[in-house]
Design a protein that fits this description.
- The chain has no helices and seven strands.
- It has 93 residues and is mainly beta.
- The strands form two sheets. A four-stranded mixed beta sheet has the order 1-7-6-3, with no helix packed on it. Strands 2-5-4 form a three-stranded antiparallel beta sheet, with no helix packed on it.
């Protein structure tokens, strides 16, 4: 997320692409930090998904670090892990 001002929150969009021949379903997404949530929306069902990741406005000052776990119905790769990081605060130069 980068550096985020307190009370501002942030949203990032990721693209998950399935290049295999078998269609894929995203069953759910969990976050290791309650201040970050994510959801999946099919763009091309079974092959491409838009993952929206949100840092809540209530995130406390300081470092926010964690991991997203994307659960799929693929028997060979049931979970995809992805880290996230940001600093909530204001800096003066």
């Amino acid at each position: 997320f980068g550096i985020v001002k307190p009370g501002q929150g942030a949203t990032r969009i990721l693209r998950l692409t399935n290049s295999g021949s078998r269609e894929l379903k995203v069953l759910g997404i969990s976050s290791s930090d309650a201040g970050v949530t994510a959801s999946a929306e099919p763009v091309k069902p079974g092959h491409e998904f838009r993952i929206t990741v949100e840092l809540h406005k209530s995130a406390p000052d300081g470092q926010v670090r964690g991991e997203l776990k994307i659960k799929t119905d693929d028997p060979t790769q049931q979970t995809l892990d992805g880290p996230f990081y940001c600093i909530v605060g204001q800096f003066k130069i």
